[in-house]
Amino acid sequence: MSLLPDFSFYNAVIYIIKGTGLTVSLIIGSMLIGLTLGLPMAAIQVYGPRWGRFLVGLYVWFFRGIPILVLLFLFYFGIFGLAERLLGQILERRINLPPFLATLVTLGLTSGAYQSQIFRGAILSLHLGQYKAALSLGFTRVGALSHIILPQALRVAIPAWANEYSILLKDSALAYVLGTTEIMARIKQMVWITHLHVPFYILAGLIYYFLTWLGIRALKRLETKTRIPGLGMEMEAEIAKNDQSV
Amino acid sequence: MTNQSSVLPFERPKAAQAETRPLMEARNITKYLGGKLILDQVSLSLNKGEFKVLIGPSGSGKSTLLQCLHFLLIPDKGDVLLEGKSAMDMSHKNICAFRQEIGMIFQDFNLFDHLTAKDNVAIALRKVKKWSKDQALSKARDELDKVGLADKAELYPAQLSGGQKQRVSIARAMAMEPKLMLLDEPTSALDPELIGEVLNVVANLAKGGMTMLMVTHQIGFARHLVHEINFMENGRVIESGHPESLLANPASRTAMFCARLSELTGNQ
Amino acid sequence: MNTWEFYSKILIPALNQGLWLSLLIIVPSAGLGIVIGVLAGAGRAAGPNWLKGLLDLYVSIFRGTPLVVQLTMWYYGLPSVSRFLGSLMAPLGLPDFTWKFLVFSPYVASVVAFTLCSGAYQSEYIRGAILSMKKGQFQAAKSLGFTNSQTFWYITAPVAIRRALHGCGNEIIYLIKYSSLALLVTIQELTGKSSALASYYFRPLECYLLTALYYLALVSLATFLLSWLEKKLHVPGLGQAKSL
């Protein structure tokens, strides 16, 4: 079966599982980028000025309306390609931006759009009175947001975050089209060497399934650990209210 | 006891002369739910124009009995007769026809949430009785008018108060022109200030001579208006009789139960 | 060739062709996905336990793995299954082409992959909508003399449709975007066309930006239609079902 002298199925599996590290760092990285972008964007959408809301709305519309595959192509071949050329001209040498970076940026920016909507929902589910009470105690607006609203919104958003994690995980499997050597790319390499399609695709499915399960479980634990009695009830109550009326 | 009607807020309507057979009769109904005996050989009958009340502690089987009489639950043993005809062993189609003859009012209203008040009243007329749309809607408006909600016909259940919802549900049941009505604690899900409007509608039905069986804890309302109180406990009817005679006898279970109720709620 | 000519003579006609092909994938996948979602959702909400278990397994597999893995399996994986089964059957004298039906064309593979994946997600919303029905609604219908099928058509369905609409509609919007994955099994749909042109003419930025606009238009149109429909069917107090 082996086309390469030192090929063995065991080594192949190890090689693929090592790609998991790259996938996981892609996801964690883009979730953090998304968080950093999403939180202020959510705050702007709820409390910000009209033009700020408009700009955030435009950003969200753009990233939520375009397939992740097209975004990956656009950023890597289009924008990163342009940046490579411009940087190359300035520095007068050949610049190569790694595909991993392009994937990370694309997934991160997209996740920012989705996360802003998650946090927007979370903030809206909190009482408006929380913000007003903070202002009345002399907090600045940013202070009220970061000390009063943020800690609550983060907690309330965890379940939606678990969902965002599983979407990002599955989207990250597309990174192979740019040449990022994460799980799916390594699976394709092994299939190309061994011509064993089905076993390797099943392996891919199992790894992704496991990662989905693991991440959701971890976030569930985080949710229980950070739980404050009564908080998040608003969102649940909102849902319960709907349930009751049907 | 017979000549007290002058001091009562409502005229107690006279029950029709007992016909040869009761309008509805339950014979030895037994019902198990989840392996537990809920109804233990309960028998009950309603003559045309009679208004009877079921009271008793929670879990005594009142609601289950009502649902069995309406075949929302099928009794395990016993028989339910409507105008002398047995309802047991009927086909699905006949059960549906049987249910049309009987109106039911639920504790939590159970209005159809996707329909306006008038459509709630009209839908069964149109789909079950196959009336034309115009006919059904004009009947619906009449019935809503009778419960004082003509102006709320276009509103959805979520836009109505609890008392209004319950009145719509009474209109919905009455529109089917049932032979009798079963009312399962129609006011227990209502805020105190809304109870009166629903009880008024029920009192109007009673004055109109509607045959009714009602589960309620509104003793003050019941004692003046009904012909018989049935007290249930542990799946059996253990006392039944004229309200004044039952409540006047302090040793009766009914009187003791009602005394405890009024202690708890502070009224009557 | 100047830029204007490149756009009007090459890029836009090609993308229009790709758009047509994309629609040919999206529309049947969305329709079949809804059908599967309704069947699976109803089965998971009200079916017997063995069916629930089976359908839960289906949903968790198709939601737990990336669509690209599923698509790859349908297109690249199944032919090898077919070969394997063929070689098993050869000694029995069965002709080799017995298992050829497992070899999907790129188009069939995409529609199958998108349908099954979309159906799994759809079933979540349908299931949620059915489970959120209050028992009292059925009781009231029964007590008015509705038969079971009348109850379904006049009470359950109108409520369930309203509650599932938002989720199911969004799922179709996702499907529009993920139809771009068909490129990975060699289909020249919108993304495939634009990717081919981008590398041939070496103008990736313009090609992909314009493609992005096409998708934005599609998604915005779908979003608009969905919210129009939601508004049209809106009933006070009937919220969206939550799907977990």
Topology:
The complex is a heterotrimer of chains A (246), B (268) and C (244).
Chain A: H1 9-47, H2 50-65, H3 68-91, H4 99-125, H5 128-136, H6 141-172, H7 183-194, H8 197-225, H9 233-244
Helix pairs in contact in A: 1-2, 1-4, 1-6, 1-7, 2-4, 3-4, 4-6, 5-6, 6-8, 7-8
Chain B: E1 24-33, E2 36-46, E3 51-55, H1 62-69, E4 77-82, E5 85-86, H2 92-100, E6 102-105, H3 117-127, H4 133-146, H5 162-175, E7 180-184, H6 192-207, E8 211-215, H7 219-225, E9 228-233, E10 236-241, H8 243-248, H9 253-265
Parallel strand pairs in B: 3-8, 3-9, 6-7, 7-8
Antiparallel strand pairs in B: 1-2, 1-4, 4-5, 9-10
Chain C: H1 3-46, H2 49-64, H3 67-89, H4 106-131, H5 135-143, H6 148-178, H7 190-201, H8 204-233
N-to-C span of chain B? 19 Å
What is the overall pLDDT average of chain B?
Answer: 86
Number of helices of chain C: 8
Residue stretches of chain B low in confidence (pLDDT < 50, at least 5 long) are 1-9
Main beta-sheet annotation of chain C: none
Biggest β-sheet of chain B, characterized? 6 strands, mixed
Which percent band covers the strand fraction of chain B? 15-25%
Globally, the shape of chain C reads flat
What is the CATH superfamily label of chain C?
MetI-like
CATH homologous superfamily of the domain at 1-13 and 22-101 and 220-268 in chain B, by name?
Answer: P-loop containing nucleotide triphosphate hydrolases
Return the CATH architecture of chain C: Orthogonal Bundle
CATH topology-level name of chain C = MetI-like fold
| CATH topological fold name of the domain at 1-13 and 22-101 and 220-268 in chain B | Rossmann fold
Spatially, the strands of the biggest sheet of chain B line up as 6-7-8-3-9-10
What is the tally of helical segments of chain B?
9
Throw out a few tags for this protein.
heterotrimer; B: 268 residues; Rossmann fold; six-stranded mixed β-sheet; four-stranded antiparallel β-sheet; 22% strand; C: 244 residues; MetI-like fold; 78% helix; 0% strand; flat
Structure in a nutshell:
The complex is a heterotrimer of chains A (246), B (268) and C (244). Chain B is an alpha/beta fold and 268 residues long.
Describe this structure in words.
The complex is a heterotrimer of chains A (246), B (268) and C (244). Chain A is mainly alpha-helical and 246 residues long. Chain A contains nine helices and no strands. In chain A, helix 1 (9-47) runs antiparallel to helix 6, helix 1 (9-47) runs antiparallel to helix 7 (183-194) and helix 5 (128-136) packs antiparallel against helix 6. Residues 236-246 of chain A have low confidence and may be disordered. Chain B is an alpha/beta fold. Chain B has a domain at 1-13 and 22-101 and 220-268: P-loop containing nucleotide triphosphate hydrolases (Rossmann fold, 3-Layer(aba) Sandwich), CATH 3.40.50. Chain B has helices at residues 62-69, 92-100, 117-127, 133-146, 162-175, 192-207, 219-225, 243-248, 253-265, and strands spanning 24-33, 36-46, 51-55, 77-82, 85-86, 102-105, 180-184, 211-215, 228-233, 236-241. In chain B, the strands form two sheets. Chain B has a six-stranded mixed beta sheet, with helices on both faces. Chain B has a four-stranded antiparallel beta sheet with strand order 2-1-4-5, covered by helices on one side. The longest helix of chain B is centred in the C-terminal third of the chain and has 16 residues, at 192-207. Chain B is globular, with a radius of gyration of 18 Å. The model of chain B is unreliable at 1-9 (pLDDT under 50). Chain C has 244 residues and is an all-alpha fold. Chain C has one domain (3-233): Orthogonal Bundle (MetI-like fold). Chain C contains eight helices and no strands. Chain C has helices spanning 3-46, 49-64, 67-89, 106-131, 135-143, 148-178, 190-201, 204-233. Chain C starts with a helix and ends in an 11-residue tail after the last helix. The chains are: A mainly alpha (246), B alpha/beta (268), C mainly alpha (244). Chain B binds chain C through residues 70, 72, 92-93, 96-100, 102-104, 106, 108-114, 123-124, 127-128, 156-159, 169, 172-173, 176, and chain C through 134, 136-137, 139-148, 150, 154-155, 158-159, 162, 235-238.
